[in-house]
Design goal:
The chain is mainly alpha-helical and about 325 residues long. Helix content is about 80%, strand content about 0%. It folds into 2 domains: about 1-85, no CATH class; about 95-310, Fumarate Reductase Cytochrome B subunit (Up-down Bundle), CATH 1.20.950.20. It has helices at about 1-25, 35-85, 95-120, 125-130, 135-160, 165-170, 175-190, 205-230, 230-235, 240-270, 280-285, 290-295, 295-310, and strands at about 90, 285. The two termini are about 65 Å apart.
């Protein structure tokens, strides 16, 4: 700040000195010292006054200009943000998102507490069990996770039957011959035999596979888990070999589900470069216009056509 004031003062002194020499050169005779000093004082006062006036006016002009520019930018950004929000599409409603949160919460609990039971001799298993308070705590947490999973599946079944969007999605998730044709088309595209990818509607064959794999997995895990949970009741009705089959099925299906989640699902929703570090659709339920056109072009065309029809009515 002091350096800036010093530079400004030096500039003004130099400017006043040049101005004095220019004015004095206009006189034919040499002025006496008193008159010259008076003229110098007048020049200095006038220059300083005009400089301050000009500086103040410049500052005011800058304030108005910058304020106007900032206001314009804020308005423009708000319009762009509003436009971007308008170009988002609601893919999953609140019911579906709650079900998904319940499922992945329960699955995380079940994996963390189930794998130590399947691989009890591993150091990581014994270490984790010790951290959470022993085998009894592990089993308790495992059953809490199971209850959450059962509640999530019950919620989903009721939603799929009673809710309009649930019924719609359930019907659209049923595999069709078109899914096989889309698979063939994508294979041709990836191998370079075609320039066009398969065009999907609301659900691709990949999403349908994901859905029914989870559905089947939940049926197996809940069914066999209930048998293991109520062992005495089951053995009073069925032979022991059926209990042993349920135990193996529960263990192997759990390992398969864990590998599918870690290798398949985790990549698609987290590690995929297009959406890293994650897709936030699970939380917001929304998908951008670009994602809609890229991954669900048929649904996008159908949605825009319906919106245009509604606007015209």
């Amino acid at each position: 700040m002091e350096d800036r004031k010093a530079r400004r003062k030096a500039f003004l002194d130099e400017f006043i000195k040049d101005l004095e020499e220019e004015i004095f050169s206009q006189f034919d005779q040499k002025l006496d010292e008193e008159s010259a000093q008076s003229i110098r004082q007048t020049i200095r006062e006038r220059v300083l006054r005009d400089f301050q006036d000009e500086t103040g006016e410049l500052i005011n002009r800058l304030k108005k200009s910058v304020t106007k520019e900032i206001a314009s930018k804020v308005t423009r950004d708000e319009k762009l943000k509003k436009k971007a929000e308008e170009e988002e599409f609601q893919r999953f409603n609140l019911h579906f998102r709650i079900q998904h949160i319940m499922i992945f919460t329960s699955v995380i609990i079940l994996i963390l507490t189930g794998l130590p039971l399947k691989f009890p001799d591993l150091p990581t298993s014994t270490g984790f069990v010790s951290i959470i308070g022993g085998i009894k705590s592990s089993r308790l947490l495992h059953r809490i996770g199971a209850v959450i999973l059962i509640a999530a599946m019950a919620y989903h079944v009721i939603y799929s039957i009673l809710h309009r969007e649930g019924r719609r999605d359930l019907i659209l998730l049923i595999p069709r011959p078109r899914d096989f044709l889309n698979l063939i088309q994508n294979i041709k595209y990836f191998l370079g035999f075609s320039h066009e990818k398969a065009r999907f509607g609301r659900f691709s064959y990949i999403e349908k596979f994901d859905y029914w794999a989870v559905y089947w997995g939940c049926v197996v895990m809940i069914g066999t888990g209930a048998i293991l949970w109520f062992e005495n009741l089951f053995l009073n009705i069925f032979p022991k070999y059926m209990f042993d089959i349920s135990k193996e099925a529960h263990s192997d299906e759990a390992l398969l589900a864990t590998l599918a989640i870690v290798i398949w699902h985790f990549y698609n929703v987290h590690l995929n470069p297009d959406i890293f570090p994650m897709s936030w659709t699970w939380w917001t339920g929304k998908i951008s216009k670009e994602e809609m056109i890229e991954h669900h072009p048929l649904e996008y065309e159908e949605t825009t056509a319906e919106n245009a029809k509604d606007d015209a009515m």
